[in-house]
Hints:
- The protein has a 7-stranded mixed sheet, covered by helices on one side. A 7-stranded mixed sheet has the order 9-10-11-12-13-14-15. A two-stranded antiparallel sheet has the order 1-2.
- The protein is of the alpha/beta class.
- It has a single domain (5-231), classed as 4-Layer Sandwich (Metallo-beta-lactamase, Chain A).
- Helix 5 (184-194) packs parallel to helix 6 (214-224).
- It has 6 helices and 16 strands.
- The longest helix has 11 residues, at 184-194.
- Strand 12 (147-151), helix 4 (161-165) and strand 13 (169-175) form a beta-alpha-beta unit.
- Residues 63, 65, 68, 124, 154 line the site of nickel (II) ion.
- Residues 63, 65, 68, 124, 154 line the site of nickel (II) ion (NI).
Amino acid sequence: MSVYSERKNGKQVMTTKITWLGHSTFHMEASGKSILIDPFFEDNPVAQVAADDVGADVIIVTHGHGDHVGDTVRIAKRTGALVISNFEIVTWLQNQGVANAHPMHVGGSHDFDFGTVKLTIAHHGSSLPDGSNGGSPTGIVLKTQDGNIYFAGDTGLFSDMKLIGEEDLEVAIIPVGDNFTMGPDDSIRATQFLQPRTVIPCHYNTWPLIEQDINDWSRRIAADTSAQPAVLKIGEHFEL
Ligand code: NI
Ligand code: MN
């Protein structure tokens, strides 16, 4: 598959492509790199691919919960992907034999060859599946050549989303499932704070507890915010 699929200003450039793999798991192509966010496949009832069939150059993990750390150890060991997460989660992964890992923490940015990663706050928990301390939960602002993308991670609404909204977001990916994270009502307010051009929902319809009417959500986003809703089916992608 060619990543040179688009022309901008007369020269070929690599496009940035975001594919939803179900729940909070996303695959991105950015600067020719393959990036997995919160890779949760084996215990994910809506996953359509197996952990052993997924490629990755980079894995970014927002927090320690099992539905986000997911299959990180297994995929990282097989692919040698660089894993980026907070310090506590990176230490936990290293203790399980993940060799290629980069620790960061909330507020910090770092330039990688695919773009700049900044970890942001999230209001949530982050304990790891074996009960270890997973530090603070995070969101991610990923600055790519095609624009800035915000992955909120698991979080409730917080007013500092206004500050994240000052980062000129092309896309915001936010949880809408309610119960464990923001639900539809607060996700509308989050979108008003974030002011992205496009908003993509996640963390819904994985289990009955987080079922939502996503068409209704989409209509509300279009009516009440300046963002375009982009509801992806599992396996569908959005191109920047
Ligand atoms: Ni969580
Ligand atoms: Mn979760």
